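Priority: medium. Attachment 1 of 2:
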């Protein structure tokens, strides 16, 4: 009798739908992702990292990473969403292998071997820096909740590290093994037009300024995503073609990712010819003959 009751209970429990309480992984790399970093030590300034465009290196598919300044590709990034890892590959002629930049699959007590990034490049001589995960906490950020990973160096116990899922190290995207520093931090992160991260208030004495800069940058991104034209080829060299009806007596303004105007071009037809003194990711604003903006497109100039 007891065995019959026990079997009935087990069968009943098996009919109840299983619900996993594991938090869904939050991707870091979208089709277009931007990190807005601030440094205020011995002066003030900003660094902009933008992931945009695809490339295949050694048969492996990567996203291209651009950094503020010369708009050149500074590295290749790849995200394995199943393994919850971010890989970084150097851009040089040595064909060095990719290395893990972030690993969000780890649990408390696990060890992590990660690469050391210096000046935007992996330093192979300092690779495989060992860390231990001390704790993982979920915290609300804007309209979402993200996992915070806290750990310490195996070589230097006091050298703590902090990661945020979908954001990276709050001290900077490429600073995966650095301590968090209120004088050098990621203030905002956007992905595919969505505002995903804002440095929590109380973590920096520059809260009001961060609010203003994040809002301004978010506004500019929403304008950038308003694309009314398609271009090909992309990437391109010194010429590209605009699909659709030919344009007459129109104008195109070309900007780098920092908002610097690179050149102004008059368009008559479907083709645009560019100067050859710059390359990297560019934003092209297209105006009609009355001076109204009729489209903004993104491209990669080789």
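Attachment 2 of 2:
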């Amino acid at each position: 009798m007891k065995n019959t009751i026990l079997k009935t209970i087990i069968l009943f429990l098996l009919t109840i739908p299983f619900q996993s309480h594991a938090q869904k992984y939050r991707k870091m790399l979208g089709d277009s992702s931007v990190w807005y970093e601030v440094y205020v030590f011995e002066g003030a300034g900003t660094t902009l990292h933008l992931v945009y465009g695809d490339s295949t290196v050694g048969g492996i598919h990567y996203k291209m990473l651009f950094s503020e300044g010369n708009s050149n590709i500074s590295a290749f990034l790849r995200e394995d969403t199943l393994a919850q890892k971010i890989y970084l590959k150097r851009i040089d002629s040595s064909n060095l292998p990719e290395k893990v930049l972030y690993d969000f699959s780890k649990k408390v007590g696990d060890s992590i071997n990660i690469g050391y990034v210096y000046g935007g490049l992996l330093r192979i001589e300092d690779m495989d820096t060992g860390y231990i995960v001390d704790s993982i906490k979920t915290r609300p950020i804007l309209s979402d909740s993200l996992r915070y990973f806290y750990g310490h160096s195996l070589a230097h116990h006091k050298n703590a590290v902090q990661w945020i899922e979908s954001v990276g190290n709050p001290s900077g995207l490429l600073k995966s093994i650095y301590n968090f520093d209120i004088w050098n931090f990621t203030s905002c992160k956007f992905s595919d037009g969505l505002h995903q991260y804002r440095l929590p208030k109380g973590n920096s004495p520059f809260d009001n300024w961060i609010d203003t800069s994040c809002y301004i940058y978010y506004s500019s991104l929403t304008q950038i995503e308003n694309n009314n034209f398609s271009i090909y080829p992309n990437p391109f060299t010194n010429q590209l073609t605009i699909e659709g009806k030919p344009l007459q007596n129109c104008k195109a303004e070309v900007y780098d990712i920092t908002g610097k105007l690179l050149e102004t071009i008059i368009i008559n037809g479907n083709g645009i010819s560019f100067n050859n003194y710059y390359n990297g990711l560019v934003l092209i604003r297209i105006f009609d003959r009355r001076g109204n903006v009729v489209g903004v497109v993104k491209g990669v100039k080789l």
